[in-house]
Amino acid sequence: MKKFIMSLAVSGVIMGSSCLSVNAQENTSAEVYVTIRDSEGKLVLVQEKIAVSDTDGDNVLSINDALYVAHEKHHPNGASGYESQETAYGKSLTKLWGNDNGGSYGYYLNNASPLSLSDSIKDGDYIDAYSYTDLTAWSDTYCYFEERNSEKDENEKITLKLMAATYDDNWNPITAPISDAVITVDGEKSGITTNSEGEAEITIKESGKHIISAVSDNQILVAPSCIAIIGGDETPVTTVQATTAIITTTAVTTTEADATTDANTTSVTTVSTTAAASSSTSSEKLPNTGDSRISFAVALGITGCVFAFVARKKKNNEN
């Protein structure tokens, strides 16, 4: 009887392994969306659709594969603009968008901190990667809009909510709203700021494809992104004559002709905007964030050790 049970157990293991092998072989490609910021915090790729294959031969479609292919297709120097290597913390970034800064990078998968570049991906995933701009305190804060895409008519309201990926006192990952961040459209400040809940409302008058992001005077933000398609036109906007942003929490109305005040009206700010030629090259001089190293440290059970956290973060602040 014991031999029979043992045989069943062995057979089960073999069958399970076979299934895993088949699944790994079937998962030979995936389409994901990659966003990359350069060493200055500028958005250089914005939710670029990437067809991913197993570039490193580990039989897993991973974050590493997606970033490699994104550079291969879109970096001026191709795949040479990207490097990764195995470290004590798993597969880690050593160069991003041509920037080799000694390991100060961050990346997120669907706005959550992964363990390493080897984490698996699937169709429809979103990958965000950046270089730290603060190489002393690594204070760059990873943040994101809950709305990654928005399709509206001209002058139709767009509702945004800006959230930060952070940690509680016990180093457990949490999210928190970012207040007083200024919303930008195609790289230009709109004059609209987020409220205490991280919320803001804007409208865009010009049809076409626009990149919405945010900056802050209070902290270094990793540039978030929302792609707004206005009027059903997906043509990237290169010159916006009058991009109008509206927020419903103030009581001043401003037009190009004059300015009037009405206690029952909303705030309207008209700005002149110049955008990059396409969403893949739209640039924003925005700060960064993300503490993926902490998350990995938590997984290893060393969350209570501040020295280890700082040392790891300094070595490679990406995981």
How are helices and strands ordered from N to C?
HEEHEEEEEEEEEEEEEEEEEEHH
Biggest sheet record: 5 strands, mixed
Briefly note the structural class of the backbone: alpha+beta
The amount of beta strand, in percent, is: 35-45%
Write out key terms for the chains shown.
319 residues; alpha+beta; five-stranded mixed sheet; disordered N terminus; disordered C terminus
Set down the secondary structure blueprint.
Elements (H helix, E strand, L loop, with lengths): L1 H25 L2 E9 L5 E11 L9 H12 L8 E5 L2 E6 L9 E5 L16 E6 L9 E5 L3 E4 L4 E11 L5 E5 L4 E4 L2 E6 L5 E5 L4 E8 L5 E2 L3 E5 L8 E9 L4 E3 L4 E3 L5 E8 L17 H8 L6 H10 L4
